[in-house]
Write a structure and sequence with these properties.
Strand content: 5-15%
Number of strands: 8
Low-confidence stretches: none
Order of helices and strands: HEHEHHEHEHHEHHHEHEEH
Largest sheet: 5 strands, parallel
Structural class: alpha/beta
């Protein structure tokens, strides 16, 4: 369980290999309090801070984790991490579902990020991320998958809102601009990247999911209605990586994935 020498060595090798590629950030992903000893978490976080690497960690995903943390350390997960200086502006808490108002305040005061993974959180029955509370306290919200069951940031954005509506029995909880930010620039911040004006995507306004949208309501339509097929082109640092809805290596990727699936299930 004392693993802090392993990720630091591997991340150093990876950082060295990617020195010439500014679009691929390197960070430290600690799994969780339940997977690592506290001293290893502290040591790895210190290593990351020294090298200005972003830190990601599962936090308060399920009630059982809270109970185990209370039994082991006498406090809740966010409280424990805050006490040991882990929570900061370079820290992203994955999930952070089962938190108190005080813990939301700690995350917000540190300008930390919270990565919501609505597909996984729904599939596992974890519950919705309290994004309204976190935004109110000053924390940032971004999206991740935590699985490969579905990869669609816009779908995750609308699901986060809809999950909150179901649990709170009310409508229009999160501002649409906050959801759009969470699905775009906030993700770059969580990865330690700076949002770049030359990072952008195009939308086919003739796609049935957004057809008829006007300039004033386009953001709302994209967040709540746009299908993945409506996103036609994607540029990263001014370089086109998706053209007319296709990645240049899509056929090769799908073929390789089919081979992996056959090995798994045969």
């Amino acid at each position: 369980r004392d693993l802090h020498s392993f990720p630091t060595r591997r991340s150093s090798d990876l950082t060295e290999a990617l020195l010439t590629n500014a679009t691929v950030p390197v960070g430290i992903a600690l799994h969780s309090i339940r997977a690592l000893e506290l001293r290893s978490i502290v040591a790895i976080a210190a290593y990351a801070r020294k090298r200005k690497l972003p830190i990601h960690m599962h936090v308060a995903e399920q009630p059982g984790e809270i109970e185990e943390c209370l039994a082991e350390y006498g406090c809740r997960p966010v409280e424990l991490l805050e006490q040991h200086g882990i929570v900061g502006g370079d820290f992203t808490a994955i999930h952070a579902i089962h938190i108190t108002g005080a813990e939301a305040q700690q995350l917000g005061a540190a300008h930390a990020m919270v990565c919501a993974c609505p597909t996984t959180e729904r599939n596992l029955g974890d519950g919705p991320v309290p994004a309204d509370l976190l935004l109110e306290k000053g924390a940032g919200i971004c999206f991740g998958t935590d699985s490969n069951a579905q990869i669609d940031l816009l779908e995750d954005a609308r699901c986060l809102e809809y999950h909150l509506r179901m649990s709170k029995l009310q409508r229009a909880i999160l501002p649409v601009n906050a959801l759009y930010e969470a699905a775009t620039a906030a993700g770059a911040r969580s990865l330690g990247l700076v949002a770049d004006p030359s990072d952008y995507f195009t939308v086919d306004l003739r796609d049935a999911s957004v057809a008829g949208s006007q300039v004033g309501d386009l953001t709302t339509q994209v967040v709540f209605s746009a299908r993945g097929e409506a996103i036609r082109d994607v540029f990263v640092g001014g370089r086109q990586v998706i053209a007319d809805g296709m990645h240049p290596a899509q056929d090769e990727i799908v073929t390789a994935f089919e081979k992996v699936q056959k090995r798994l299930w045969q």
